[in-house]
Amino acid sequence: MFEGNLSPTEVLVCQNRSCRKLGAVKVLVAFQALPVPGVTVTGSQCLGQCGNGPMVLVLPEQVWYSRVHPDEVPAVVERHLRGGQAIASMIYRKVKQ
Ligand code: FES
């Protein structure tokens, strides 16, 4: 499902209460510090996956990352946003509908 080259255009970083308690502000700041042309980074409302945060959703391919640490953000930016390859080991697969 996540094979091949991805072309992300938007990154949502949940900034709602549960994710903020788990460090989502620093994750958002880390993404904002590494801007990628053509990719918008937005602090979002609750993404409906509370307790697994900080949650990050990459669109349009809908790749979810959970428990993202600020130190992991450069790898996401380099490999996924710039390189077009999702980081399999960080993907959150139990998305609650
Ligand atoms: S508070 Fe972040 S997913 Fe709900």
Topology of this protein?
Blueprint: E1 10-14, H1 17-21, H2 24-32, E2 40-44, E3 56-59, E4 63-65, H3 73-82
Parallel strand pairs: 1-2
Antiparallel strand pairs: 1-3, 3-4
Bound molecules: FE2/S2 (inorganic) cluster (FES).
Could you please describe the fold and organization of this structure?
It comes from Funiculus sociatus GB2-A5. This is (2Fe-2S) ferredoxin domain-containing protein. InterPro entries: Thioredoxin-like_sf (IPR036249). This protein has 97 residues and is α+β, with helices and mostly antiparallel strands. Helix content is 25%, strand content 18%. It has a single domain (10-90), classed as Glutaredoxin (3-Layer(aba) Sandwich), CATH 3.40.30.10. The protein is built from three helices and four strands. A four-stranded mixed sheet has the order 2-1-3-4, covered by helices on one side. The mean pLDDT is 94. FE2/S2 (inorganic) cluster binds at residues 14, 16-19, 46-50, 53, 55. Residues 14, 16-19, 46-50, 53, 55 line the site of FE2/S2 (inorganic) cluster.
Summarize the structure.
The chain has 97 residues and is an alpha+beta fold. It has helices at residues 17-21, 24-32, 73-82; strands at residues 10-14, 40-44, 56-59, 63-65.
Number of DSSP-assigned strands: 4
Query: What is the fold named in CATH at topology level?
Result: Glutaredoxin
Sheet with most strands: strand arrangement: 2-1-3-4
Helical residue percent band: 10-25%
Please report the distance between the alpha carbons of the first and last residues.
18 Å
The structure class reads alpha+beta
Largest sheet: 4 strands, mixed
- CATH class category name: Alpha Beta
